[in-house]
Amino acid sequence: MNDTMKALIVFDLGGVLIDWDPRYLYRKLFSGDDAAMEHFLTEICSPAWNVQQDAGRPLAVATEELVSRYPQQRELIKAFYGRWEEMLGGAIEASVAILQEVKNLGFPVVALSNWSAETFSLARKRYDFLNWFDDLVISGIEKVAKPDPEIYQILLKRTGRNAENCIFIDDSLMNISAAKGLGFVTIHYQSPDQLREELSLLCPGLAVLNT
Prior knowledge:
Low-confidence stretches: none
Number of helices: 11
Order of helices and strands: EEHHHHHEHEHEHHEHEH
Strand order of the largest sheet: 5-4-1-6-7
Structural class: alpha/beta
CATH superfamily of the largest domain: HAD superfamily/HAD-like
Helix content: 40-55%
Radius of gyration: 18 Å
Number of domains: 2
Shape: globular
Strand content: 5-15%
């Protein structure tokens, strides 16, 4: 890492700073039938389907196409984006505290997140700390999602950085592997305490909690 400038700290959002889980909504809709809920979220409103919206597909188009394939599940499918805000938990406060600390230490901070442009506008109204970032690279706006190398290159071009001057934090091993292959310094997020411990080795001045 280049010692002449502070590293750029790149945060994923969902799962690192924001608690998002469709189960918060669908546990209510399936009335406790977890097996049916998991089948629905694996086979119908699946992660592979959702990431297409993260990459820019309009929510209305995605919803109607899926309803046409599974008309018997119409109301459950329409709830995915119609009641999307019910999938949001709170901020992961211990991680947000780390974001604030590294920013206070003078490290530039950028978000790189897979997120639909349409739902991200709702999140921005809810979480004030999204305004702390020096830049936000959101897949739904850029029309390309992690782990596609193109979105990492967009970040590098926007920030004027080389990958080796960036510390990339994400809870997805797939996204971490893609970033590492491009030369990023990476931290596979597992918990706030683990993030603090690993990041403190790379960011002088970041306090380490006594445990």
